[in-house]
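Retro notes
What went well: the complex prediction finally ran end to end.
Inputs used:
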Amino acid sequence: MGQKVYRTFEEAVRDIPDSASILIPGFGPGVPLNLLRALYHQGAKNLTLIANGAGGPATPGHENTITSGTLVEAGRVRKVILAFTGATHPSRRSVLEELQETGEIEAELTPQGSLAERIRAGGAGIPAFYTPAGVGTEIANGKEHRVFNGRTYILEEAITADYAFIRAWKADTFGNLIFRRAQRNFNPIMATAARCTIVEVEEPIASEGELDPDQVHTPGIFVHRIVKIPPPPEGILHANPANAAPAHGPAPASP
Amino acid sequence: MQKTPLTRELMAARTAAEFQDGWIVNLGVGMPTLCSDFVVQGRKVIFHSENGVIGYGRNVSGDNADPNVVNAGLQTVELMPFASIVHHADAFGIVRKGLLDVGVLGAYEAAANGDFANWKLAGRKGGGIGGAMDIAASAKRIFVMMEHTTRDKAPRLLRRCTLPITAPGVVKLIITDLGVFEPLGEAFRVKEIAHGHTLEEVQALTGAPLVVDGPLTEVQV
């Protein structure tokens, strides 16, 4: 079996073609910032991104930080599936919203729990499931409705993708992964739902047998490529929180 | 009399006073995440965040903050001794199973029929649902924390929402800077009113009839 450990992020993303679909985890912590930067420089376009949100471009002091928002603003993205397709602040209109209005980007807005379960289902061989989230709202339009035990649910379909970019705390050479605290978020489910799962890892990559099997969150059988994050400034350890989309709901400022 | 609308912190403290011992509570982005700073002493409240942090506490910053421990608003929070971490799909499994005693959410509008709207503005193509629809569909109760009016003093408590709704008929309590309100179908019951305000003044800023049971009480924090 082939070697999973890659020396550089550049090598790990080199073969990603135009029109690839990519799962991008992160919710504040847990964003694969080093892989995103490598993809940005690699140049693939017409991408489909599946993520919680596509946060804005880098802010002063964090120009080196590439987010899914940077890829959107650079015109590299054709479609997004997100829980946030608009700016949550009423007075601000994001580039993503403008590109939706001109038709340059197709955006599918999905409740965050349905997004997570669609990805989990995709990685677990389940084609679709019923959920009560969104019943009685615009989101339910055109979706199959079905009543179970007197309650109405809508059908949501699984998501799989060509690639998943994953941010882990620890990994071994087999690809077993451990996440730390809220870095976990979408990482374990996205790691299962792609045909090729590429991991950036904070700690030095362990040998087989060094990680306790009971502590492993993601089995290495889901993982294809691993790259150790080099020390800063070459490697990026923490996201700029201003770039990350929040979890739910608008900031309750006046519309 | 001096009019004293509730500050964000007082609204959070008033909301947190509703959380009973042992409740599992999800706090939305914005004002709601302030509530974890104001748990009534002696009560154990389990704060759930959709990112999988189960059992967080107060907002913390500086040396006490771990950048990898955040709430729904991505603010750094403390982990309680009983905390655990799950992934995003399991965090929402907890929501769908109905384990949340309450979800506290911000809103653009809340209606007398219990609808609320917090994900899409008029004339906008994009929206920000986040976890609000999942939580609103499955929590045992939904509280809304919001400013009572827009900056132009237009009502945001309405008979019916004008914006696309987040969930129908789920709101049990609304905490604003002007008081505490309960949707009754076609009207709101005023449970408490902010210091120095008359019912007539608050009615003028509300888009549905207000009713009062018994004497009008001030917001107690």
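What we learned: Chain B has a mean pLDDT of 96.
What to try next: split runs per interface for comparison.
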